[in-house]
Amino acid sequence: MRLLLSPGQSSEMGAVPQLLAGLPIPTAVVADRGYDSNAVLELITGSGALASIPSCSRRIIKRSIDPAIYRQRNLGRELIN
């Protein structure tokens, strides 16, 4: 698990590249719908990982995610190898 503190008024999506930098290439990145942006999704899929991030309500075409993987997002340990 990696934590990064950022100013309260800034978007958390800007921290995603720093959070993923230097980590071993994951098979999946799990996050809540607050991280649903094209830039974040492209960064994750560009690394070869699966983005398990639900679509936010403003998306016209909704992505499907594996509910079993998504439920584990807050456990704070590596669950997907």
Structural notes for this entry:
This protein is α+β, with helices and mostly antiparallel strands and 81 residues long. It has one domain. Helix content is 22%, strand content 7%. The protein is built from three helices and two strands. Strands 1-2 form a two-stranded parallel sheet.
Strand line-up across the major sheet: 1-2
The figure for the number of domains is: 1
| Rg measurement, Å | 13 Å
Helicity, in percent? 10-25%
Helix and strand succession?
A: HEHEH
Number of helices: 3
Q: What percentage of amino acids are in beta strands?
A: 5-15%
Main pleated-sheet profile? 2 strands, parallel
Briefly note the structural class of the backbone. alpha+beta
Which oligomeric state applies?
single chain
Low-confidence sequence ranges: none
How many β-strands, per DSSP? Answer: 2
How widely separated are the two ends?
A: 14 Å
Shape field: globular
Q: Provide the residue-averaged pLDDT.
A: 82
Topology summary:
Blueprint (H helix, E strand, L loop, with lengths): L15 H5 L7 E3 L7 H9 L3 E3 L14 H4 L11
Parallel strand pairs: 1-2
